[in-house]
Design goal:
alpha/beta; three-stranded antiparallel sheet; binds cytidine-5'-diphosphate; binds adenosine-5'-diphosphate; 209 residues; Rossmann fold; 14% strand; globular
Length: 209
């Protein structure tokens, strides 16, 4: 199944809750885009130069560890995960994500994982796993999302909201909901409420309704 949505709409928290309830892993595609960004930044690559970015990726083997309680990304023995949600990665990641070679690098890693799993990101239900059994798309207003993200970042809510709006815009091409996705506005719901809606949708799907 797939859970896509805009930035900070709750994709990874909801995927983790759903994956735990179903006893399967989840895959965070965004963490791989973030790892690609970290490598490009560390190699001082021009983020718009696909050749330079792919050269950086070629020298950094990564492994996505799809733990249900939270994905981790490893580079040999180095756990990159704590560095992937930094402000500098937030700011650079959308430039990296438009590069077709980087999208192929991420998708190849995701497609190696044997199902069942919950895949979360932007284009899981449209491009990467178009035949997924059940698809969901999470939204919420920029203000609501910025307030939530402000719990996890040092910036204030206004700065975070501006950065989220900018990233939504840069990510627009790959972020269209699948035609067969159930769209959930998470604004009025707490985390358990969203997880409950997704699980109810999965049940309906399994019952063939
Ligand atoms: N429905 C919700 N109600 C309140 N807080 C939420 C809800 N969904 C997610 N959050 C919180 O919002 C923040 C962003 O959620 P996250 O799962 O990281 O989103 P995404 O993976 O889409 O970036 C986290 O701090 C998370 O705990
Ligand atoms: N399937 C995906 C997942 C992420 N991304 C890119 O990766 C970035 C980070 O995604 P994320 O899901 O980790 O982060 P949030 O947007 O939820 O904060 C997005 O802003 C997109 O640029 C993408 O293009 N396609």
């Amino acid at each position: 199944m797939t859970i896509d949505g805009v930035a900070a709409s709750g994709k990874s928290s909801v995927s983790s809750g759903v994956a735990r309830a179903l006893g399967i892993p989840y895959l965070s595609s965004g963490l791989l885009y973030r790892a690609a960004t970290l490598f490009a930044l560390e190699d001082h690559a021009d983020l718009s130069d696909q050749g330079a970015v792919l050269a950086a990726l070629g020298t950094h083997p990564v492994r996505l560890e799809p733990l249900a309680e939270g994905n981790r990304v490893w580079q040999n023995g180095r756990d990159l995960t704590p560095e992937l949600h930094s402000t500098r990665v937030d700011h650079g990641v959308s430039a990296i994500a438009v590069l077709p070679g980087v999208r192929a690098w991420v998708n190849e890693q995701l497609r190696q994982v044997p199902p069942p799993f919950v895949a979360e990101g932007r284009d899981m239900g449209t491009n990467v796993f178009p035949h997924a059994g059940a698809k969901f798309y999470l939204t919420a207003s920029p203000r609501v999302r910025a307030r939530r993200r402000a719990q996890e970042r040092p910036e204030d809510v206004d700065a975070i909201e501006a950065a989220l709006i900018r990233r939504d815009d840069l990510d627009r091409v790959q972020s269209a909901p699948a035609a067969d996705a159930v769209v959930i506005d998470t604004g009025p719901l707490d985390l358990d409420g969203v997880i409950g809606k997704v699980l109810a949708g999965v049940q309906r799907h399994r019952a063939g309704q």
